[in-house]
Amino acid sequence: MQILIIEDEPRAANQLLNKLKTENFDYQLLTVIDTVEDAVLWFKENKSPDLVFMDIQLADGLSFEIFQKIDIDAPIIFTTAFDQYAIQAFKVNSIDYLLKPIQQEELNHALNKFRKSNKQLAVDPAILKKLLGSMQTTKKREGILVKEGNGFAQIRIIDLLYFYSHESITFGVTLSKRYIIDETMDQLFDSLDTDQFYRINRGQIISKNSIQKIDSYFNHRVKLSIINPRDQDFIVSRQKTSDFKDWLNH
């Protein structure tokens, strides 16, 4: 049984593999892929695996985007930290899903469903493309709740220059202040207008309005000069550089 894992969090991928071992699931791991771009390249160059575990939120976008660029005939079990994605993906077709953190019992259920289906969990690319389109056109938030003193305050999204994560805490920065935000980077980015905000790497999200200068950086990356950087370096990851440049041109 050859499996492929599409997951941008190494810890989550390792946890899944450990749980598969607990289930005595006989498998050969082909590889772990963490971006939409690399997944598309892999499917173009390799024979389809017997089963794919696919995270919905990847480092460079939603995994549903993979289906816009290539047809996949392998059975897929989605994994996600977001209930709304899990419910939508599950309703698409006879596709199963695992809500993070993955529970052993739920994994067992998904594997049993896979076995009973004679390894034919159908994926309808047309429906997934429609689902992706509906997600992309969803109205994005205009404000965000931040911690301030002993309470909370509402800040306009347009006033945020960038967001970053440090020691599992999410921060939002304006021209004059830094705020603590009680959301993960994944949850936050999913709610932002992607015409105005871009996730340059796993730990940083920047707005177009915050960029002052763009410089070439080693290993085919780019480094950004940002308003009020607060000792942060802003480097666009290699796999996102091309997409980042496209984002700036729109």
From TrEMBL:
It holds the Pfam family LytTR. Residues 144-250 form the HTH LytTR-type domain. One of its GO terms (molecular function) is DNA binding. Signal peptide: none annotated. It comes from the Bacteria. This is Two component transcriptional regulator, LytTR family. PANTHER family: STAGE 0 SPORULATION PROTEIN A HOMOLOG, TRANSCRIPTIONAL REGULATOR-RELATED. The modification 4-aspartylphosphate is found at residue 55. Keywords: Phosphoprotein. The keyword Transferase does not apply. It comes from Aquimarina amphilecti. Residues 2-115 form the Response regulatory domain. The keyword Phosphoprotein applies.
